[in-house]
From TrEMBL:
NCBIfam families: YbhB/YbcL family Raf kinase inhibitor-like protein. The lineage of its organism: Bacteria, Pseudomonadati, Pseudomonadota, Gammaproteobacteria, Pseudomonadales. Residues 97-122 are annotated as: Disordered. Pfam families: PBP. This is YbhB/YbcL family Raf kinase inhibitor-like protein. Gene3D superfamilies: PEBP-like. It comes from the Bacteria. InterPro entries: PEBP, PEBP-like_sf, YbhB_YbcL/LppC-like.
Length: 207
């Protein structure tokens, strides 16, 4: 199976139009256009009954104490965890693309609702947890929300866009399911997968 993420080249920086946060010299970060990129895939195997789309960052600090703190830098050797940015399940087997801006076009304070979206069913991304303490932003974030790594991180973050072809029409997930729920539900049902990885940083020393 082959995946194309329009505007994102393998191993290259992700354009700011797809980012939740963009570099700002005064405040380190400001909101970005936050559009989902167009995904197009082909050569799904025979027997495909649905697709899962996900995008995640495996480079997120496991301890958030120093995230975006003046005068501090997040060390490269700090253990890292997955942060899910996009979860779509039960994408119909007939689908071969998701248009740019279809699932997100701008930052939505307090989030977007999980459940049926323009294409497939939206799961909950990790901005739900990350922004929980911010009274202006706290809410349930579902569907796509793009890169916004800590501006004081000493490493460039990687973002894996993935499409998985499944042998089931539905994973049976509903409500506020997250990335771990999706991985658990699709285990044993993946016929083929494809991935494109882009990079992103808000650290001016790494840009």
């Amino acid at each position: 199976m082959k995946l194309h993420v329009h505007g994102v080249e393998q191993g290259q920086p992700i354009p700011e139009k797809f980012a939740f946060g963009v570099f700002n010299e005064q405040d380190h970060m400001s909101f970005g256009p936050n559009r989902n990129p167009e995904l197009a895939w082909e050569e799904a195997p025979e027997g495909t009954r649905s697709f899962v789309v996900m995008m995640f960052d495996p480079d997120v600090p496991s301890v958030a104490d120093d995230v975006n703190q003046e005068g501090k830098t997040i060390p490269a050797d700090l253990p890292r965890v997955d942060f899910f940015h996009w979860l779509l399940v039960d994408v119909p087997a007939s689908a071969t693309r998701i248009p740019e801006g279809e699932d997100s076009d701008g930052v939505s304070p307090k989030g977007k609702q999980p459940g049926p979206g323009p294409i497939g069913t939206r799961g909950v991304n990790n901005y739900t947890q990350f922004l929980a303490g911010n009274p202006d932003m706290a809410g349930t974030y579902a569907g796509y929300d793009g890169p916004c790594p800590p501006w004081n991180d000493s490493i460039v973050h990687h973002y894996h866009f993935e499409v998985h072809a499944l042998d089931v029409e539905s994973l049976g997930l509903s409500g506020e399911f997250d990335g771990n729920d999706v991985r658990e539900a699709m285990a044993g049902h993946v016929l083929a997968s494809a991935r494109v990885t882009g990079t992103y940083t808000l650290n001016p020393d790494l840009r």
